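worker-3 :: picked LysR family transcriptional regulator
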Amino acid sequence: MSRRTTQLAGLDLNLLVVLRELLRERNVTRAAERVGVSQPALSAALARLRRHFEDDLLVRSGRGYVLTPLARQLTRQVEDVCAAAEQLFATGSSFAPDTSVREFTLLMADYTLTVIGQSLAELFEREAPRARLRIRLVRESLSADLPRVVRFVDGVIAPPIELEEQPKLRSAELFRDEWVCVVWAGHELGDAALSLTDLQRLDWVVPYHREPGVALPPVPRRLAALGIAPRVALSVESYQAVPALVAGTHRIALVQRRLALQFAERFDLRVLECPGEPEGIVESLWWHDDLDPDPAHAWLREALSGIGEGLRDHNPG
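worker-3 :: C-alpha cells ->
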C-alpha cells in the first residue's frame, strides 16, 4: 500500500463535512446544527482539524470568528472535494427524481441565474422535491481554473470561453442572448440612436472590469472588439447589479438583453441597440464526460435542456 493510500485510509472523512460547514458558517453552533451533532462534538472535531492542519482555522474577532489565511485557502478546496465525494456516492444504476435526495451542484453567473433561476427552482419542486440543488455563483471572469472546477460539480453554465478546447468536457447549448446598451430614461441621449462615438465619450458601468489582457471577461472583451476603451466610472463583480448603478445617472452599460428587459421598468431604463454588431451570446451546459453514464446526471441534463428549449421558444425582443 502506497504512503498516499495509507494516509487516506487513516483519515476520518466525516471531518470533511465538519470542515466545510465550519468554513461556510464561521460559527461553531451553526455548524453543529448543519452537521446534526452537538456543539461539544463539533468543538472536538474542530480541535482535531486544528491539530491536523497545525492552524487555528477560525480565530475569534469581536463576537464572531474570522478565517485564518490557511482556512481561506482551504475553503475552495473543501467545497470541491465534498462535491466530488457526494457526486461519487450518489451515483447509481438508476435514478428516481421524485424520491431522490441527491444534491446537485451547478456553477453559473448571476446573469444566468436571473434567466433560468425561477424555472430551475420550479422544476426541482415539481419533479425532484427531495433533491437538493446548490448553485455556486461565478464571482469573477471565467478563468483557467474553471476546467478544473467543472470536474467537481455537476455542470457549469457558461459561454465557451476557456472551456471549448478542454479535453473530456461535453457541452449542450441551452439558450442564446445578445448584447444591448442600457441608459437611464432621463439620459442626455434622449431618443437618439447610439453611435460608437457615444460609446467612447460616455462614462461606463462595467461588470468584472479588467485591464486589457489575455483573459478578458465578456463585457470588456466585447467593448475591446468594438474598438472601445471605456472610461470606467464604476466596476462591480456582478451582472445583476449593473442596472441599479446606471439608474438615475448619465452612465451607460453593456448588458445581456434578457437581463436588461427584466430590470428596465424597475429602474426606469432605456434599452438601446448597440452599434457595431457585437457578437451574440451562447450559454451552454458544460460537464465532464465521466458523468455521461450517471442516470441522475442524465436527468439533470434533460431538465436543463427543457428549460433552454422554453427560452429558445421565447427569444427576447
